[in-house]
Specification:
Helix content is 54%, strand content 14%. By secondary structure, it is of the alpha+beta class. It is built from 8 helices and 7 strands. A 7-stranded antiparallel β-sheet has the order 2-1-5-6-7-4-3, sandwiched between helices.
């Protein structure tokens, strides 16, 4: 739980569209809500930030303490976070910067908020710089009126995230091959961008399939008992995909991805199995959901 002081800042922030007084008067603050790595419960932390184009930069300074703050450990375990910025609220992927990118972004932060240089001087650890992308203001909000539309939106997101992880992974291996051919040292292992995106994808996929198995499919099966073989097949595919997902998650357990070549193999298997599964589910299930309103009517 946040301290009494932190909670007072959170309450004032939410009551005044992001404006607070006292020691933070005039500061650029946001509220970052992470999911506890051990507890699974939401944790909200007020943080200073520096805007850099279409992204926000936050630093795990912990006031120069020798260990990273809890919110940083949380986002490594569960990369999808909630951000409150003024009156705006959105979900985004939290990605710690690495290597020369980290150094460039930390210098950008220090140029605007010099106190972070003092925090860095006070500790032997490298202060993490976490990148939070702002939502695209040009992206239109989808007009979803049916459960079929909602399912399509979820499937589109899953396909998009998986395709992006796959593309970034292949780009990494292509760079390794090019440098090896030129006699140069290979680039470092698969980076945090790939790790965070893939971990967020795995967690979202697990939640989606658990929700379908626990609620959506039983309800639909009650209305369409003749389709039981379809639902049995979908559940079996969920179990098969979960095994690949578990293998991927195990490779993402550390900050550095263990065994990049095996990760690439498991990712390819996930791409093949999930694509076939989503195609089959949409062909069989979407027509049944076209007339089910979304969002559901409140009772």
């Amino acid at each position: 739980m946040p301290s009494a002081f932190q909670q007072s800042v959170i309450d004032e922030f939410r009551a005044n569209a992001g404006k607070v007084g006292g020691p933070f008067a005039g500061s650029d603050l946001l509220l970052l809500t992470t999911t506890g790595a051990r507890t699974g419960r939401p944790h909200t932390t007020p943080l200073g930030h520096v805007r850099d184009g279409d992204r926000l930069l936050v630093v795990g300074s912990n006031l120069g303490a020798p260990h990273h703050p809890d919110w940083y450990h949380n986002l490594l375990a569960r990369p999808t976070v909630q951000v409150e910025l003024g009156e705006q609220q959105f979900q985004t992927l939290a990605v710690p910067a690495e290597g020369s990118t980290h150094d460039e972004l930390f210098a950008r932060v220090v140029a605007e908020a010099p106190g972070y240089a003092e925090y860095q001087a006070a500790t032997g650890r490298v202060l993490p710089v976490v990148v939070l992308h702002l939502p695209d203001p040009q992206a239109p909000a989808p007009a979803i009126t049916s459960l079929a539309g909602k399912l399509t939106e979820v499937h589109t997101w899953l396909r998009g995230q998986l395709a992006q992880v796959h593309a970034e992974t292949e780009a990494h291996f292509a760079a390794r091959a090019a440098q090896r051919g030129a006699g140069a040292p290979p680039p470092p292992g698969l980076g945090l961008q790939i790790r965070q995106r893939c971990l967020a994808f795995c967690q979202a996929l697990e939640f989606h399939h658990t929700s379908e198995d626990g609620h959506v499919f039983p309800v639909m099966e009650g209305y369409h008992p003749h389709l039981r073989p379809v639902f049995d097949r979908l559940r079996e595919e969920h179990r098969s995909i979960a095994a690949v997902q578990s293998a991927l998650a195990a490779l993402l357990a550390g900050v550095a991805i263990a065994d990049p070549h095996r990760f690439r193999t498991e990712l390819t298997q996930m791409t093949e199995q999930l694509t076939a599964h989503l195609d089959y589910e949409e062909a069989e299930i979407l027509p049944l959901l076209a007339d089910v309103p979304w969002p559901p009517a409140s009772r």
